[in-house]
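Hey, I'm writing a tutorial for new members on how sequence and structure tokens pair up, and I'd like a real worked example in the thread rather than a made-up one. If someone can provide the structure for the chain below, I'll link this post from the tutorial.
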Amino acid sequence: MERTITITDDTGIHARPATVLVNRAGGFESDINVEYKDKTVNLKSIMGIMSLGIPKDAQIRITAVGSDEEDAIQAIVDVIKNEGLGE
């Protein structure tokens, strides 16, 4: 399962919201990844997310594979929207 999101926050995905995303992703059994510019990292890794350097207006793809993949994707999308990071 996957979803594509556009980042709208002026500072992109920086340390504080990345931490919120990692913490939320950690609550799921599924493998959850984020892809940006042909590079894919584990959404449960703060260093991985920070290494992507996701800026404003970036298109990112969230993917999840596992028993709770639908819930995982929805939870991550909710965090991105609730934190004002994207849509």
